[in-house]
Amino acid sequence: KMADVLDIESVEDFGEEDGDIDVSRLKDRARKRKGRGLVQPPTEVDRDPNYDRIESGSDHIPGPQKSIEGWILFVTSIHEEASEDDVYEKFSEYGQIKNINLNLDRRTGFIKGYALVEYDTYEEAAKARECLNNSEILGHKIHVDWCFITEPKKSSRRRKH
């Protein structure tokens, strides 16, 4: 058996065929797009986002910062088998809890080891933070700190070395 052979010498001209003309016309009309997200002109939302903000005021003191909803504590090193009720019970002794959030690991079903506990007033949150930091839940030592803090105001003058 003999394989199919392409006879190059019998081909007359490698000029543009109908398909080549269509491809070149298509390439002329195409726009070049590069980069992640194909940068587009900013929309109205991008130019003037109307987000809720809390102004820190002129007496910029470093320390805890109130969120839009309230005063939020970040609790870490929680035992993985602890429940929302365990955390709620421990923190409700220091004031009315406005909201509590424990994220679960979808694979295991246990909590991820941290929680966000929200109080309405600074006094309740500060008391809970002071009393519960380095305390225990289900035999595990937990750490409690502010979720949002303000940094010291940066001086406009540069340091000279």
Describe this structure in words.
Heterodimer with MAGOH. Part of the mRNA splicing-dependent exon junction complex (EJC) complex; the core complex contains CASC3, EIF4A3, MAGOH and RBM8A. Residues 29-65 are annotated as: Disordered. This protein has helices spanning 18-29, 44-47, 84-91, 122-132; strands at residues 63-64, 71-76, 97-104, 111-119, 136-137, 140-141, 143-146, 149-150. It is α+β, with helices and mostly antiparallel strands. It has a domain at 63-150: RRM (RNA recognition motif) domain (Alpha-Beta Plaits). The longest helix has 12 residues, at 18-29.
Summarize the SSE layout with pairings.
Elements: H1 18-29, H2 44-47, E1 63-64, E2 71-76, H3 84-91, E3 97-104, E4 111-119, H4 122-132, E5 136-137, E6 140-141, E7 143-146, E8 149-150
Antiparallel strand pairs: 1-8, 2-4, 2-7, 3-4, 5-6
Primary descriptors:
8 strands, two-stranded antiparallel sheet, 4 helices, alpha+beta, four-stranded antiparallel beta sheet, 22% helix, 161 residues, elongated, Alpha-Beta Plaits
Number of helices: 4
CATH homologous superfamily descriptor of the domain at 63-150:
RRM (RNA recognition motif) domain
**Overall pLDDT level:** 79
The computed structural class is alpha+beta
**Main pleated-sheet profile:** 4 strands, antiparallel
**Main β-sheet, spatial strand arrangement:** 3-4-2-7
> What would you report as the Rg, rounded to the nearest angstrom?
32 Å
Please tally the β strands and state the result. Answer: 8
CATH architecture of the domain at 63-150: 2-Layer Sandwich
